[in-house]
Each structure stands twice: as structure tokens, then as C-alpha cells.
Write a structure and sequence with these properties.
Length: 1507
């Protein structure tokens, strides 16, 4: 009975804390809201359930709806000039053939549009936070009235409602009806929009650069030509981006100021330095007026506001150390080295003209009023010193200011754009505060947990919501993404690229097959993603913060009113709130403040929902040992120095545990030291073997704590240990010097129910041991914002700075062990971490802790009035009052019926809780209050003794002695006390609740009834009061009446004569008998101060009679069991093995040979069959290894499809029945039989050949084992690609391994698949050969120095004869012809050291998707086996969207590629124009001096010119 009541008291304590500590001063007080709830329709229906959730919650199709709370409408909060979405989730309770939805119509300048959430299949999770399977992301536009067909039962169907308010919208609440129609019946769902009385700015205050492919959108929507339709869509695209508060990389497309290499796009006079623009809509000025100044009705409704930033010039490619300028300017050719950093000649003819052109461009932009929003993007992702030197050298002549480069100190960069994991707040703050430089950020597929990534589909939406808060906290001015809508592969069916779901697209094409639609067929509506809509939501939140800051942009100073809120959401670069409700409540309260609905923001009330029950354990300490949970130390519980430590390892965060890690955990390690000179805590070590940053969260109650962390490894030194606690650097880039570093951060105030731990600096080791979290006091009220360690030297302020939490660090000598040492296996990590497979991150500099000046005046007061005349009637309310005596009183009804509170009184204020109950029975109540400081108890008397020890029991609920109510003396109670500290921490208050003895008596009656006529009594040991008895109902009996009851006299006689004199110890039993009874007694003692004596007495005659009956029944049952057991045993001995055997046969038919498991039968005949069957299976496994991979894959896929089509509705009850055998038959595979038939055909195929250069050298110099290992690893790489590309591996001969496309499996795009496979294969083989090169360097006799281009690849597309050749007993799939051409092509690879070559036929297909260049004309066999001249080409990078490449898009006909000049020269060479070709080849050679191909062509040109 203690446990349920204790849970209730703890729950009531949480309710009290939520209300008593934050009393609103405004008339319209702010209350936290829940955004996931069930919604009732009018009329109600059982056909379906309607519910809603925050837009950031990505709802799976199978997710169950909530049962509570239940609301009658869906509420949306918006400012004016804002977009806001809502999710309407419809879940049929049974299948529905047709359901219609109709959008709400509001008026008041509130617009609405409908989308349906579409699910796409994710083949694999993006990372540790991701998932696979069906996942929501595309938002398919639907009409205002839309019909959904064939809805499945218990599956979610989501309508995404996009709402928009205009500047002209009025403030207030507005309701419209969303209608669901089924079978002609309308079900109304009210949508209530609350419009705040302010508008977010139309002007963007976050800049962005989104690489938008305009032409892809035009093509996908069936737009042709350049007429009215063309310009309509150009304007639509610009408006779409602006409405999402994003800027495309080419906001003036299809016009602009500059072209490729920053060359002039409009007319520029090299002599006068003047620009002229006669091109209208295809030029510059007209587009400036429309899109940058907003002076056109076609964009932003001629509001005079346009895009806030403009890239006026860009780069050519990613090579920072290479000159990115146009090759010819003002009739002067640029020298690749002489005019660049290598030549260091700024006064050359080309550079002189160029610097003047840059100055003229600046003046021209200034004359148009565009200079402040314009920027030049000349470099992308500098990687090394040479790159940064080139950046600095060039920048100093463009903007002569300061940039930190020692070689060129007068350079200037205005905007730095790091990928998020490389972002260093300390450096960013320094550059801005000292030099006025901005920081933007961007995201890649390598942006993995613990960092947030709003691009990743299978991350929850909070990673999009946090963006605006993050930008404000770290004063980041812009965002960028390198591919907003790359649809080169279908995002609906292939959403992953480079392991990230969603990479390269935030918007979807209009057709799910990625084919163009007829113009206007979808009402000209674009298809956003959930990620795109949430990104807009977050950027709008940034505008809320901007307005809260008085309409001032963020700067390198501190804004208490805004930053105090932001610090509650974002704690560090990896630590941020993951509570959806918290984000929407925070945004709503800011909206209420900006709209004048509240006078101040109630910081005390802004806390996330309680995430775990551990958050209720107020006043507790927590001790954590980081170790392998099932490894050493093995002691359980683990107790060191009298403290019990939780064992926590590298487990991902889970809500059920309330703790865990966010990050990539695939390379995390454990170590337990054998050294016994340190205790178990510091013998335990966890670390990341790749030196990656990790982030840990642990749920705690809101309170003030001292947190201690130890890191180190005895005998090993690591120079860059880093630990931060809840964003506060603690162990900051320190060397453990062969021992340990123990740091403590003091007075850490927790208000979000969690303590976080940041671990590690990228590329460096941190060795983590343990963490101790020690309770100091409850949190102070009102909220006083803590210093946030934004690592930046912010300028001093006149605002008073509160005293920060202190931290201390001390190197610790190795302590003596506190437990017996245990032997362990030693593991020694390398002195430096292994290289991370992702992009290396620069090491962050040591951040300086920043003390945030955030004094917040109290906005709540406690009413100190006490209630001297409380109600005496039965009540369902809670009253809480606080004074110097810390008085608390509680009224509640019977625990047995799960009481709920109806209302709450705080001081004189009354708050309705809104909790209801249909039935209240047996209600009891009490009233009283206790004074913890004096130990007195008013009215509830005999509790004085317990109250005197009250202070020592804070946080430990306990029971007091029983009593009769002095007013209602016929009711007896057992009081329950829950002490807690008051907000000031100087006194102790308590919650007191009473359990009536009637409840216990009822339970006792039910429990004892199983003993027939037995009786039981509970006595209170200290008072000998009867707590309960199974004899009678004590609901109206006082203590006095209980003691005088005739029914209990015999009990007291037994108690006084025997039990009492025996002096039973706590939790001890005492059993004896009298003439008439068997008696069992037990003294029950608990840590909640219960001390009761339980007495059970059973008549002897009842026991004897029951024994006789039991014997008779047991004999009969035993006989029956024996008979049934023998019969069942015989049946099962035959049936179970046979069932197993049939299941194994079925697995064989499906070729699932690895799943076969048979339990050996004890019947000889059956065991012989089983043995023979297993021998057959083992032989089949051997044979299967020689079946071609493509054929095996198709065979197994066909088997799987056949299996899914079988009728499994009937299950056999008799293994020998016909029904059973029939239901388990295998469907014939007629569709595949032709794959095994003998015969050949003529068809076009593509052969991808992989060659091992100097194969003979390998045979001579490698040992047989090394040769086998090398070739096996190569085959493993190729086989993985074989399966994914649906190709097949041919015969490995003479060092060449062919991969055949469109051979055994028909492929429509086999040549393109081969090219893409070659690109992936090249990367995989590069990694493999690097590894083997290292192995060979370390082993004598194994040299791979002759390997160039790793393993060259050649692609040949031709028509061949292929098919199954042989006999019916022995056949093989063979390609006749083709290999000879492959050998010839490899000669070109060898001659020029080319990685990938392809023949002319393959090039015709691939040149649209890849950069290629011709190499040489050779003689190959054609389809008629006749020799003909044909070109061999080199295959370069993809021409679609290259990884990490930022493309500058001006004209749709513009192309890029490093071989443009080369290809121009080759064309001239073919035409016999050798002198012009030679000029092109030399120009190319200057940039590519090591290119053997162009060197050969230069020689050929010179020879031809001599002729």
C-alpha cells in the first residue's frame, strides 16, 4: 500500500512546485501548453481518430495517437506577416474507402493551403540518430477539397496545413472549420489562429546562399521557351525563395553583373572603366530594380524590399591555390602562375587591368546603392597553407585591410563560411569584435551528431527549429547550402547520397518519377520538404528575437532580455534542447511579450517537460562510472568510498534511461587498467578511437549542483583533454601528464532537467573516468540567468555582472585502490587517434569563459496570507501557503480510487486544474498544517515527535503515527509526510496526506479471504492501535472504539501474552499455535517510518480439512498428469522434429541455407534422415558459391516475392495432414527458368574492366598468402558494387577483372551505371591500395612502388554475343568478344597513367553526366568484328553536382569543367588547326604541368607544324 500512495504524493509535490514558485503578475498569465493531443470533431465519430502534434515531430505511419489530453480544436499562434504550419493527423479505426478533406477559410487576411505528407523509403539510416524505412518528408500539394482513397486501418494520414498572415491581418483569435467528409457526413474540426499584435519584418535579417538550379525547376514543370510562361516561373521561383526567407546564389538569374571567372556579363569599357547595360531583363539593372530593390509588382508586391544579399561574382572551381579569374580580360591573356601568387607580380599587365576593373565594379555597385549587400565569392574550402596564402595574396589587392596571414598581413576577408563542425565560436567572436568580419555556416553530409543538421531527413525536426536560436547565440550572420534542388537522381526513390538522406535537395520535383509534368498540371505549386518548412519557421523565430532586441541586429555585445532566453535553448555547439513543446512555448511567450499580452517574460515558468522520473528525486546525489557495463569492474553494485556508482558506457541517449550519448559511437572504446594503484573509478576509461567530439546528457532534478569529472590514464599522457559541463568549459585542453585531471564546477544551476558533458577536441584524445553530481540546494527564485560560456571576448558592459559558477582543476596523483584489484587484459591505444573517415576538423582554440550579465527582476510574488478558516466540508482542492513557518496543507480524497485534484489555491489566487473524474466514492478528507521550525502540529496531534526530526528527513517521505480526527472523531487516519525545502532554502515545508484505515481494512479483507475463515490484524507497534482488521469496517470507528471492540479482545490477549513478550525484531517472523489456532506474526518496518505488527490467525480445523481434500485432489491430478504427459511426449517426440524438418526443407527451397537449424531426433530412422539432409545442405552451400552473383540475387528476390504471395492463413494442426503439407509447398520458379536455359543472344553490353598493373610482379614478389589476401580484398570491394549495380563479375584472367552490365540482368541505362560504378570503385580502391602500400613498405620483399593510379579502370560499350554455353549438366554464362577491346583500352590507361578510360560509344552516353576528354584514336573491333578507328576518352568528375562544389549559375547554357580549354584545343587539333590548338594546349599545360596527355599533344602539334 505504500508504493501507490508514495507515487501520488510525489506527483502532488511536482504540481505544487510548478505553481507555488511562479506567481504571474499579469492578468493574462502565461501557462505552458502541450502541443500533442487528441482532437474531437463535431459530431464525434468512431470511424477515425484525429490528433495533432508540433510540426517538428515527424510522425511515422504506425505511431499511436495520444489518449490524453483531448481538445476541441487545433490552436496555432502567429504574428502578422508570418507563415506557420499545423499537422492534422487522421487515423482510421477501420479501413475507409474514401475520405474528403476541405481547407479552412478564415478571412481577416489569413490565407491557408493544404499539402499531404508523403512517406519515402529510406534504405539506410543517415547516422546514429537516423532511421530506415518509410519516413515523412515531401509535402505534396493538394487542392482545397481533396479526396483520399483506400485508407488503411490504424495508419496515420497527415494533412499539412500552411497558414499565412499578412501585414493587414488583425490581432486576436480567429476560427475556421477544417472539414472531414466520410459517406456524406461532415465532421468539423475547428482551427483557431491566435494572431499576435505585431508583424515580423519583411526584410531578412539572416543572409543566405542557396545553390538553386533554376533550369531544373523550369524543365520539371514543363516550361519551354522564354515567353510569358518562362518569366512567370522565374518570378515564382524568386518569390518562393524569398517567402522562405532564403536567398538563391543567383538572385538576378537569368541576368547578372559578372559571368564565369568574374568576367563582365554586361558591357564594360576597359579604357573608360564604365559599365553599360542594354540587355533589359537579360542584363543587370532591370533585375536589380525587381529583385534587390523590390520595385516590381511581380516580386514582393512592389514593397520596396528585396533580397538582403547579392553575390556579384563567384569562382570557377574548388582549387583555392589556382587563379579563379577569367583566362582573358581586356584582350590580355592571363598567365596561370605569373599573374598569380606564385609570380607575385601585382603590377603585371593583366593584374593592372584587373585591379582597376575591381575598383570600377565597386564604384558601379556604390552608384546603384548595392555595395553594402554585395559580396564576392572567390574561394571555396581552402585546405592548406598554400590555399590560404593564395586567398590572402589576392584579397589584399581587393580590400586592403587586415586579415591574420603572416605572409600577407594586409588582406581582408569579410565573410567566413565554415562547415558547422569546424565552426569555432571563439575565433568567430574575435574576428567580428576586432575586425568586423562575419561568420556564416553551412552543412554537409559529414555534419554528423552530436552537431545538428537541418538537411538530414531522418533527424527530428528540432534540428531545424534550433537553427534560428543557434544563429543568434553565436552571432552567425548567414547560412549556405550547396545544392537546394539537385534532382540528378530521383529524390523520391533515391533520397540518399554519400550516406545522408536528403543530401542535395530541400525541395522535390513535381512528379514522383522525376519526369517533367505537363505545364500547369499541378496548378503551378512547388513541392517543399518538411525540412524546408521548418527551416523557414526557425528563421522567422530569429526575427522574433530581432524584434525582442528592440529591432536591433545581433552584435558582439550582450542583450540580457534576449540572450537569457536563447541560453535556455542552446547551451553549446552540440548541446541544445530536444523538446518540441519547449520551442513552441518559448516562441509563444515571446510573441505574447511582443504583442503586449504580457508585460514581462516569466522565465521561472519556462522549463521543458519532465523527461524522466529521475527528475523527481529532489535532493539526490548521482555518481557515474564510465565503463563497459558488462565488463570490469564487475562489482554490483559498484561501491567506491561508500558511494554507489551507476555503470554507464557508450550507449546512445534513450528516453527510457534518461541518459546517453549523442554522437558517432562506432569507434568508441573501453579500457580497464590492470594497474591496482588506482581505484576502480580511474582504472575505468572510455574514449573515442577517432578523437571525435562526443556529447552526453543525464537527467537530474532542477537544482544547484557541484559537478566533478575525472579524466586521464595512468602512465600515458594526452595533451588535449577537454570536458565541458552544460556548456561551461571545465577541463580545457589540458595535459594529464601521465596521471589524472579532476575538475569541479561549483554551483551549477540546472533548470532544464539535464546536465550535459561535452567530451573531446576533434582529432585529439580525451580519456574519461567518472562524474559525480552533488546536490547543493534547490534552485533560487526568481530566475537569475547564469553566465553562459560563449567562448568569445565580448566587450565590457556597464550592466552588473553576476558572480559566475566557479570551477577548479587539480592534477590528481594516483589514489590508492578502494577495492581489491582485478586482473584485466591490457589494450594500448596509439599515441595519436586514428584518422576520422570524415573531413578533418581544425582544433578549436581554448575558449575563454564568458560571464553573461543577465540580472532579471522578479516577476512573481508569493502571497504570505495564511488561511485561518479553511473549509471543513469534503473537498477536492489543494491549498498551498508559505510563510516564515513554512506551512503547507493538503486536502484530497481516498487513495484507493486514484484521486485527482479539481482546483488549486495559491495564497488567495484560485487556479482551475481542469482535471475531472466520473465517480467519487468513499471520500475521506483531512485538514491541518505543521510548523517545521517548531515541530508543532495544529489539530493533527500525535505527530509532534516526528516533526522534531523533520529537517533531517528532507526529500525522504515518511508515515507518522495514526490518529483520530479531533473534529470528525469517528474517522481514523495514518498521516503521510513529504518534506521539501522552501524556495529560499532557509526553511523546510512539507506536504501531509492521510490514508484512512478503511482503505487498509478493505485490502486486508480481500487478501485474507483466500484463507476461508482466517482473520488478520495490523497493529501499530508504538501505540498498539489497530491500523486495520479483516473483522469489521472501521470507516466510522475512532481509535478508542477500536481498542474496546469485543471482536478484537482475543487478538490483544494473544498479542500481550505471547507476541509482545517475544519482542520481535524489525522484519522478523514469529510463528506459534494455540489450542484452536495457527498464528503467524511479522513486524513490518520500512525506511518511511512504518512500524506495524501483522497477525494472521487460522482455525486449525480449517487447515486439517483442507489438507485431506488436497491429498485426494493431488492424487487424482497426478494420475491424470502422468497419462497426459506420456501421450503428449510420444506425439511431440515425432511432431516437433518433423515440423523442424519441414521448416528446414522450406528454407532450402528458398536458398536460405544459413538459417537451417535442426534439433537431433531420438528416433533412429528420423535422425538418419536429418543427418543426410544436413550433409546435402552443406554441399549446396559449397555449390552456391559458384553460382553467378547476379543470378543468385535475382533467384533469391524471386523466391522472396513468391513467398510473400503464398497463403499463410491456415496453420497445420497435424504434421501428417494434407492441409499442412499443402500450405507449405514452394511455388515453381517458371519466370526464372529461362535464365538457366542454354542459348546465346546478340545485345549491347557495357564492360567495366579493372586491371592490376604489373600483375606478374605481384606473382613474383608477394607471398602466396599476401597475394591471396590482396586479390580477395579487391574482389570484396567489387562484389559489393556488383550487387548494388545489378552487374555481374566475369572471369578474372591475367590481372583483369571484368564487371558486365546488361549481361545476365537487363539494364536500360547500363553505360551510365557503369560510369557511376567506376567513380565509386575508384574511391574504394584508392583506400584499399593506400592500405596495401603501407603494408608493403613495412615488409621486405613486398614493393608496390610501381603502382600508379592505384588500379586503372576502363569502360567499353559494344554489341556482343552472350548467354549460357555448355551442356545441361555443366553450363556457364559467357561473353563472346569484347575483352579484346578492353585490353586495347588499357594500353591507353598505361600510356598516360589515366585512372578511368572509356570508348567513344560509352562517351556518347556519359558526356551528358560527366566531364570527359578525348585522349587518342585507336583501332578497336566494331559490332561486325571488323577493325575501325575510334577515340578513347578519359572519364572525369560528375558534371551534375560535385561534392562540396559551390556552383555559380548565370546562364542555363553555361557549363563548367577543368577540361574546357583542353577540349577546345583537341577540336582544333582534329580540324588540323595546329597553331591554334598548340596555344590552347599550352594554356592548359600551364595549369596542369604534370598532364602527360597534353604534353604528348603539344609534341604532336609541333611536329605537324614543322611538316
Amino acid at each position: 500500500m505504500t508504493s501507490p500512495f508514495l507515487q501520488l504524493i510525489l506527483l502532488l509535490a511536482v504540481i505544487i512546485e510548478a505553481f507555488v514558485f511562479a506567481l504571474p503578475t499579469d492578468t493574462n498569465a502565461f501557462q505552458l501548453e502541450t502541443y500533442t493531443y487528441k482532437v474531437t470533431t463535431q459530431p464525434s465519430t468512431s470511424l477515425f481518430t484525429v490528433w495533432t502534434a508540433p510540426p517538428s515531430q515527424k510522425i511515422l505511419q504506425s505511431k499511436n495517437p495520444p489518449t490524453t489530453p483531448v481538445n476541441s480544436n487545433i490552436k496555432v499562434y502567429m504574428a502578422r506577416n508570418e507563415y506557420e504550419p499545423a499537422q492534422i493527423i487522421i487515423r482510421p479505426n477501420s479501413a475507409i474507402s474514401s475520405l474528403q478533406v476541405s481547407k479552412p477559410v478564415f478571412g481577416n487576411n489569413i490565407q491557408s493551403e493544404l499539402y499531404q505528407v508523403t512517406y519515402i523509403n529510406l534504405a539506410a539510416a543517415s547516422d546514429s540518430l537516423g532511421t530506415s524505412g518509410m519516413f515523412p518528408d515531401p509535402l505534396t500539394p493538394i487542392s482545397d477539397t481533396h479526396t483520399l482513397s483506400n485508407l488503411n486501418a490504424n495508419q496515420n494520414y497527415i494533412i499539412w496545413l500552411n497558414l499565412r498572415t499578412l501585414n493587414a491581418s488583425s490581432a486576436g483569435d480567429f476560427t475556421a472549420s477544417f472539414t472531414i467528409t466520410v459517406n456524406g457526413q461532415n465532421y468539423i474540426l475547428p482551427i483557431q489562429v491566435h494572431v499576435f499584435n505585431f508583424a515580423i519584418p519583411m526584410k531578412h535579417h539572416i543572409d543566405s546562399q542557396m545553390n538553386l538550379d533554376h533550369q531544373s525547376i523550369l524543365s520539371s514543370y514543363g516550361v519551354s521557351g522564354t515567353g510569358t510562361d518562362y518569366w512567370k516561373y522565374v518570378n515564382m521561383i524568386k518569390q518562393w525563395m524569398y517567402d522562405h526567407r532564403l536567398t538563391p546564389n543567383s538572385p538576378l538569374w537569368s541576368g547578372g553583373l559578372t559571368g564565369k571567372g568574374a568576367s563582365p556579363y554586361i558591357d564594360y569599357d576597359c579604357n573608360t572603366g564604365k559599365f553599360s547595360d542594354p540587355y533589359g531583363a537579360w542584363g543587370f539593372v532591370d533585375n536589380v530594380n525587381k529583385y534587390l530593390k523590390g520595385n516590381s509588382i511581380d516580386f514582393n508586391n512592389a514593397s520596396g524590399i528585396g533580397f538582403s544579399s547579392f553575390m556579384f561574382a563567384g569562382l570557377i572551381d574548388n582549387s583555392c591555390s589556382v587563379d579563379q579569374r577569367t583566362s582573358t580580360f581586356c584582350s590580355i591573356s592571363r598567365s596561370a602562375t605569373g599573374d598569380w601568387v606564385q609570380g607575385n607580380n601585382p603590377t603585371s599587365a593583366f593584374n593592372t587591368k584587373w585591379w582597376k576593373y575591381m575598383k570600377d565594379t565597386q564604384d558601379y555597385l556604390q552608384s546603384l546603392g548595392l555595395l553594402e549587400i554585395s559580396y564576392y565569392y572567390p574561394f571555396n574550402e581552402p585546405q592548406n597553407t598554400n590555399d590560404y596564402d593564395a586567398v590572402a595574396w589576392y584579397s589584399q589587392y581587393i580590400k586592403a585591410k587586415i586579415y591574420a596571414n603572416t605572409k600577407y598581413p594586409n588582406a581582408k576577408i569579410d565573410i567566413w563560411v565554415p562547415v558547422l563542425p569546424n565552426f569555432n565560436p571563439s575565433v568567430s567572436w574575435e574576428r567580428e569584435s576586432k575586425y568586423g568580419e562575419q561568420t556564416w555556416i553551412y552543412f554537409l553530409d559529414s555534419t554528423k551528431p552530436p552537431y545538428f543538421n537541418p538537411i538530414t531527413i531522418d533527424h527530428q525536426g528540432v534540428e531545424s527549429l534550433v537553427l534560428g536560436w543557434y544563429l543568434w547565440k553565436y552571432r552567425i550572420r548567414g547560412i549556405a547550402y550547396y545544392a537546394f534542388n539537385s534532382w540528378s537522381q530521383n529524390p523520391y526513390t533515391s533520397p540518399a547520397l554519400y550516406g545522408q538522406n536528403g543530401n542535395l535537395f530541400m525541395q522535390y520535383p513535381p512528379s514522383t518519377n522525376n519526369q517533367p509534368i505537363a505545364y500547369g498540371s499541378n496548378n503551378h505549386r512547388f513541392v517543399p520538404s518538411i525540412r524546408l518548412e521548418l527551416m523557414r519557421d526557425s528563421l522567422e523565430t530569429y526575427e522574433y528575437l530581432y524584434l525582442l532586441n528592440g529591432g536591433k541586429a545581433q552584435a558582439s555585445s550582450y542583450y540580457p532580455d534576449v540572450d537569457s532566453l536563447v541560453d535556455m535553448v542552446v547551451q553549446s555547439t552540440t548541446g541544445f534542447s530536444r523538446s518540441d513543446d519547449f520551442y513552441y512555448n518559448m516562441r509563444r511567450v515571446i510573441g505574447m511579450k511582443l504583442g503586449g499580452e504580457i508585460s514581462s517574460i516569466p522565465l521561472d515558468q519556462l522549463t521543458p517537460p519532465i523527461p524522466h522520473t529521475r527528475a523527481l528525486l529532489t535532493g539526490s546525489n548521482f555518481y557515474i562510472n564510465f565503463q563497459q557495463v558488462d565488463g570490469s569492474p564487475t562489482a554490483s553494485p559498484l561501491i567506491v568510498n561508500g558511494k554507489e556508482y551507476m555503470k554507464i558506457g557508450w550507449s546512445a541517449y534513450s528516453d527510457s534511461n534518461g541518459y546517453g550519448w549523442y554522437g558517432l559511437l562506432d569507434q568508441t572504446k573501453y579500457q580497464y587498467l590492470a594497474d591496482t594503484s588506482v581505484n576502480d573509478l580511474q582504472r575505468s576509461i572510455i574514449y573515442d578511437d577517432y578523437g571525435r567530439v562526443q556529447y552526453f546528457e543525464f537527467v537530474v532534478p532542477n537544482a544547484v549542483y557541484n559537478v566533478t569529472v575525472s579524466c586521464g590514464w595512468k602512465g600515458k599522457s594526452y595533451s588535449n583533454n577537454y570536458i565541458a559541463i552544460s556548456g561551461h568549459p571545465l577541463i580545457n585542453n589540458l595535459n594529464n601528464n601521465g596521471g589524472y585531471i579532476v575538475g569541479t564546477i561549483s554551483n551549477l544551476e540546472v533548470r532544464d532537467y539535464k546536465i550535459s558533458l561535452n567530451m573531446g577536441i576533434a582529432g585529439q584524445y580525451t580519456m574519461l573516468n567518472y562524474m559525480e553530481i552533488i546536490f547543493v540546494s534547490n534552485v533560487t527564485k526568481p530566475y537569475s540567468p547564469q553566465p553562459q560560456p560563449i567562448p568569445s571576448p565580448r566587450p565590457s558592459s556597464s550592466v552588473p555582472v553576476p558572480k559566475p559558477s566557479t570551477s577548479s582543476i587539480k592534477p590528481q596523483p594516483s589514489p590508492k585502490p578502494s577495492v581489491k584489484p582485478q586482473p584485466t587484459t591490457s589494450f594500448k591505444p596509439n599515441s595519436s587517434p586514428k584518422p576520422s573517415p570524415s573531413r578533418p576538423h581544425p582544433q578549436p582554440s581554448s575558449p575563454k569563459p564568458f560571464v553573461s550579465p543577465k540580472p532579471i527582476a522578479s516577476n512573481s510574488t508569493h502571497n504570505n496570507a495564511t488561511h485561518s478558516n479553511p473549509p471543513r466540508a469534503i473537498s477536492k482542492s489543494l491549498r498551498v501557503s508559505e510563510s516564515g513557518a513554512s506551512m503547507v496543507s493538503l486536502l484530497f480524497h481516498e487513495i484507493k480510487y486514484q484521486p485527482t485534484l479539481k482546483s488549486l489555491y495559491i495564497g488567495n489566487e484560485h487556479v482551475t486544474l481542469g482535471l475531472t473524474r466520473d465517480k467519487f466514492e468513499n471520500v475521506t478528507y483531512m485538514y491541518g498544517y505543521g510548523d517545521a521550525s517548531t515541530g508543532s502540529w495544529v489539530e493533527l496531534y500525535p505527530c509532534q515527535d516526528f516533526l522534531r526530526s523533520f529537517v533531517s528527513r528532507v526529500g525522504k517521505p515518511f508515515w507518522t503515527l495514526s490518529y483520530s480526527d479531533p473534529v470528525y472523531s469517528n474517522i481514523v487516519y495514518i498521516p503521510f509526510m513529504c518534506p521539501f525545502r522552501t524556495p529560499t532554502g532557509t526553511s523546510v515545508a512539507f506536504i501531509a496526506g492521510d490514508l484512512s484505515v478503511f482503505t487498509l481494512s478493505e485490502v486486508l479483507k480481500d487478501s485474507v479471504s483466500v484463507f476461508g475463515t482466517a482473520d488478520a490484524v495490523l497493529l501499530e507497534t508504538a501505540t498498539e492501535n489497530v491500523i486495520s482488521s479483516s473483522k469489521m469496517d472501521y470507516a466510522t470507528a475512532s481509535l478508542k472504539k477500536l481498542r474496546e471492540s469485543e471482536n478484537l479482545k482475543s487478538v490483544f490477549e494473544i498479542y500481550n501474552s505471547t507476541i509482545k513478550s517475544h519482542n520481535i525484531g524489525c522484519n522478523k517472523d514469529f510463528i506459534f499455535e494455540t489450542t484452536l489456532h495457527y498464528i503467524s506474526s511479522k513486524r513490518i518496518c520500512t525506511d518511511t517510518a512504518i512500524d506495524w505488527t501483522f497477525i494472521l490467525y487460522i482455525p486449525k480445523w480449517q487447515v486439517v480439512g483442507e489438507v485431506i481434500v488436497a491429498l485426494i485432489v493431488s492424487i487424482a491430478v497426478t494420475i491424470g498428469v502422468i497419462v497426459i504427459g506420456l501421450t503428449t511426449g510420444v506425439i511431440l517426440a515425432l511432431k516437433m522434429p518433423m515440423q523442424k524438418f519441414l521448416e528446414a526443407m522450406r528454407s532450402v527451397s528458398n536458398m536460405e541455407l544459413d538459417k537451417i537449424s535442426i534439433d537431433k531426433s531420438y528416433f533412429y530412422e528420423l535422425s538418419v534422415i536429418q543427418t543426410s539432409f544436413l550433409n546435402m545442405v552443406n554441399r549446396m552451400k559449397l555449390y552456391r558459391a559458384f553460382i553467378p552473383g547476379f543470378l543468385l540475387a535475382e533467384l533469391e528476390e524471386n523466391m522472396k516475392n513468391d513467398e510473400e504471395g503464398m497463403d499463410n492463413s491456415s496453420k497445420a494442426t497435424d504434421i501428417f495432414s494434407k492441409k499442412s503439407l499443402k500450405s507449405n509447398k514452394v511455388v515453381p520458379l517458371d519466370s526464372l527458368m529461362q535464365k538457366f536455359e542454354l542459348g546465346v543472344e546478340r545485345k549491347e553490353i557495357t564492360i567495366l574492366g579493372l586491371k592490376i598493373v604489373n600483375f606478374d610482379l605481384l606473382l613474383r614478389e608477394f607471398t602466396l598468402q599476401s597475394l591471396f589476401n590482396f586479390i580477395s580484398e579487391m574482389f570484396e570491394v567489387v562484389q559489393k558494387l556488383e550487387k548494388s549495380s545489378k552487374s555481374q563479375i566475369g572471369n578474372f584472367d591475367n590481372g583483369i577483372l571484368p564487371l558486365i552490365f546488361n549481361g545476365g540482368i537487363s539494364l536500360t541505362d547500363h553505360t551510365l551505371k557503369a560510369a557511376k560504378t567506376a567513380e565509386l570503385l575508384k574511391k574504394k580502391l584508392e583506400e584499399m591500395t593506400k592500405k596495401w602500400k603501407k603494408i608493403s613498405d613495412n615488409n621486405a620483399g613486398m614493393s608496390m612502388n610501381n603502382f600508379y593510379c592505384e588500379l586503372p579502370i576502363s569502360i567499353i560499350t559494344e554489341t556482343v554475343v552472350c548467354g549460357n554455353i555448355g551442356t545441361n549438366d555443366s553450363k556457364t554464362f559467357t561473353v563472346l568478344g569484347g575483352y579484346k577491346n578492353l585490353v586495347e583500352a588499357f594500353k591507353i590507361n598505361d600510356k598516360y597513367r589515366i585512372a578511368i578510360t572509356l570508348n567513344e560509344r560509352a562517351n556518347k552516353v556519359c558526356s551528358n553526366n560527366f566531364y570527359t576528354r578525348p585522349l587518342e584514336v585507336v583501332t578497336l573491333q566494331n559490332d561486325l568484328n571488323l577493325c575501325e578507328f575510334t577515340k578513347i576518352y578519359e572519364l572525369g568528375e560528375s558534371s551534375e553536382i560535385a561534392m562540396d562544389e559551390w556552383m555559380y549559375e548565370l546562364q542555363q547554357q553555361e557549363t563548367k569543367g577543368k577540361w574546357i580549354v583542353y577540349n577546345e584545343g583537341y577540336k582544333l587539333f582534329e580540324e588540323g588547326k595546329y597553331s591554334r590548338a598548340l596555344k590552347k594546349f599550352r594554356e592548359f599545360s600551364e595549369k596542369n604541368p604534370d598532364d602527360f596527355v597534353v604534353s604528348n599533344l603539344i609534341v604532336l602539334c609541333e611536329c605537324e607544324m614543322k611538316k
